[in-house]
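User: Here's a chain of 334 residues. Predict its fold as tokens.
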Amino acid sequence: MTHSAPTHDVCAVGNAIVDVLSPCTPEFLSDKGLEPGSMRLVDETESATLYEAMAAGVEASGGSAGNTVAGIGSLGGRAAYIGKVADDQLGGVFAHDIRAAGVTFDTPALTGGAGTGRCLINVTPDGQRTMCTFLGAANQLAPEDVDLAQVADSAIVYLEGYLFDPAPARAAFEAAAEAAHKAGRKVAITLSDTFVVARWRSELLAFLDGSTDIVFANEAEACALFETDDVEAATRALAEKVEVVAVTHGPKGSVLVRGDERADIAAEPVGKVVDTTGAGDQYAAGVLFGLARGLPLETCGRLGAIAAAEVISHWGPRPMTSLKDLAEAAGIRL
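Assistant: Prediction complete.
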């Protein structure tokens, strides 16, 4: 069957969240009982208490998949986003920021319920981030919020693993994946965090088998999924399940596998790591943009590395310099 050319490169489904980023000391994390580098969910009361204790910081629209589509916009791509905010001040901030990045965002806001989700991010001097997330309205995404026509009109639909937790959101995933495949499009998912993998390992494996073409994972997530310490074995196991696998190795770069094809990608040099928030999200932006445009696997990985390097060189999870300009300066014609 012949399918029409997509309007969007990527349509992402994710938790719509506003990030609050503050510098902290390792002692602060210890005092608050927070494990350095972790992400955990908190309720509205815990969120308010921690916010009061944090140092002065900056607010920036975030959410993993939201950051990714902002990166795709920075590369000159066409992206859409499906995620739930509340009809409140932070919801307005999120909607403004994602549309300003050139992303289509039409999901109706939640009224009369929980507030817009927020992620409190404490960043130690080495750039590592420790996150406490109150999902709020983001957790209320349901199948009826998914614009199936928009999904079908996107080369790739990108699903944020964090949303695998609530049952209505997982139903939204299934609906989006089905609509994408029916239209001849690709489905990508990021595993998001080891806690997601630990909670939903068997369900995730089933979703990969039946509904997924492209998977993003870091070393820890890939290993957790297959209950192994051997990241190469985990990468091979993933590659047997899906069409394209991208596994990130932090400062050691990344590996992409597509069938018998493999690309080992070095990390781009960074003068100083300021804040690692959004590194994986921007890596995904580069790779997804490249895949949507049919670029070689190695070029997709290089775009991911360039985008990740840009975002860890400053505070905040979204690009501050045009990723399209950076890619073209590195000799990649977009």
